[in-house]
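Comment thread on ticket #2218

A.B. wrote:
> Attaching the input chain for the structure job we discussed in standup.
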Amino acid sequence: MRRTITHIGEHALAPASLMMSYGFDPKLSEGAIKCPVFQSSTFVFESAAAGKSVMQLAYGLREREQAEDPALIYSRINNPALEILEDRLALWDKADRALVFASGMAAISTTVLSMARPGDAIVYTAPVYGGTDFLFDKLLPQFGIRCHPVHGDLGDAAMQQAVERARAGIGPGGRIAAIYAENPANPTNRLIDLAMLADLARSLDGQSGGRPKLLVDNTMLGPLWQQPLAHGADIVIYSLTKYVGGHSDLIAGSCVGSEADLAAISGFRTILGTMTDPHTAWLLLRSLETLSLRMRQAEASAWKVAEALGAHPKVAEVGFLGFVDPASEQGRIFARQCSGAGSTFSVFLHGGEAEAFRFLDALKLMKLAVSLGGTESLASYPAGMTHVDVAPEMQRAYGISDNLVRLSIGVEEPEDLIADCLQALDQV
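C.D. wrote:
> Ran it. Output below, let me know if you need it in another format.
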C-alpha cells in the first residue's frame, strides 16, 4: 500500500486530486475503492528472521535498505491507514514525511520534547493557542526548559533581542533548542516573516548541538493557504482537528518535514504512545478528499461576512487577513507567504466584555464553542475561553482584548451567516 501515480505524462497531479488514491492499492484490499479501517493492534511476521529484521529497523539498529518498505509491526508504531494518511498529508507541504498524533497538542509536545533538554531554551512568538501557551509557560519550565515569548514588534531586531535574552538564561551546556511560531497567531491573525525567522535560526548554527529548528504551527491557514517549508521552516505542525478533519468529529494532530528532522520525533512518538488510532486515521482520509472544497468555500464566505461586519457601526475593527493594507509590513508578509486569507478572524466590538457577551449569546445559527475549521460556523471569546489561563497583563500585551470575538466561518450560505451576525449586533 505505497505511493501510486503522481503524474499523467509530464502533467503533475495536484494534491487535491491525489487525496482520492495516493498510497493505496485496491488490489491489496479485496478491490475496495477506499482504504479500510485496519482495526488491528498487531501484525503477523512472515518468519522469525523477518520479525527480527523488522524490529531492528524500527529501533534504529540497522539502516533501511534502498527501496525497503518497512513492514507492519504494531499499531503504536505503524498501521496501514496511518501510513497512507501520512503519505497524503506530506503532499500538501511537499514534505519528505508526515507524522500523525492523537491531538494537535500531542504533536506539539512530542515534537518539542524530542528536541529540548533541561537547561535549553525555546523562543516563541506570541500569542499562541492557549494549550501551547500553557505548555511553554507552565509545564516545560518544570523540566528546566525556559520558554521566552516575543510579542508586539515581531521584526528582526525584536527577535534578535529575544534570542539574546534566551541565551543569557540557558543553563550549563544548554542551547536554544527551537524557535516556535504560530502563523498567523491565534486569535489575532498577526503574521510573522517566516524567512526572517529561518535566517535567525541559521545564524545560530555555531551553538553547541547545532542551530535551533524553526517550528511553525500552520493550523490557521494550512495546508491550502500557506506552506511554511517553502519559506524556511524545518517542521510544520497542524491541529488536524481543525480544517483537515473539518467536521468537528475527531481529535488529531500532525507534523511534516524532512526524513532527518522527523526521525527523532517518530521515535518519541513510538515510546510516548502519542500516535492517532486507526479509526481516526480513516476519518482523516475521508476528510482529505474534500479539504480543498471546504477551505475554498469557507474562505469565500468569510470575505462576505467580514465585509458586512466591517461596515457595521457597532464594530470597531475586523482582523481579517484579506483586509491587511498591502503597503504595510503585514501586507507585504501576506503577499509573500499566503495564497488566501483563510476563514477564521477576529472581530473587535465597540465596548468590552458585556457587549461581546451580548453579541455571542444572541447568535442563532453560529454555535458558541471553541475550535475552528469545521463545516459549521463557530464563535468564541478568547479572553475567557481558549486563552483564559493567560494572565490578564499578558492578554493585553498579546492584543487579546475583552472586546475581541473570534469567528470561524463554515460552509453555510454566507447570507444566512450575515443575517445572524446583524441580528446579534442589534442586541449589543
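A.B. wrote:
> Thanks. Noting for the ticket: The chain has two domains: 80-288, 291-425.
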